[in-house]
Amino acid sequence: LGIFAPYRIDIQQGNFISAETMAQLREGMKRPDGMTRDQVRFLLGTPLITDVFHADEWNYVFVLRKGNGEVLTSHVTVMFSGNKLATVDGTILPTEKDYISLIAGKTAAK
User: What angle do CA 57, 24, 54 make, to 5 degrees?
Assistant: First the structure.
């Protein structure tokens, strides 16, 4: 009876951050429009990983495990100096359109 396979659900963990959201972050301690911790938390959500020894570093990790075995991961790190956003580092992030295509079961447009 090899024609039947169990249904496997998609499992999403963490904060999804799109390329469009990443583009909204404004770095810079000396810039008047540099973002504060509260503004970053409002835009990106509560960080998945925080460390009491590195309070100025927030890590946003995202993992999507599709039922078919496909895995999408992303990682964004934001660093603060005082209350201002100093630097942002991360993997190449999908656009919102690509992500919706992926969860809908379609291939991402490139």
Answer: 0
Paired tokens of 66:
């599709």
Measure CA 83 to chain center: 21
Q: In degrees to the nearest 10, what's the CA dihedral of 96, 97, 100, 101?
A: -150
Contact (CB, 8 A) for 49 and 61: yes
> Do 21 and 77 form a contact (C-beta atoms < 8 A)?
no
Contact (CB, 8 A) for 48 and 59? yes
What is the tens place of the pLDDT at every residue in 94-108? 888 888 887 777 654
pLDDT of residue 48: 82
- Phi, psi (5° rounding) for residue 18? -90, 170
* Residue 101: Cβ-neighbour burial (10 angstroms; 0-12, 13-18, 19+): middle
The pLDDT value recorded for residue 58 is 92
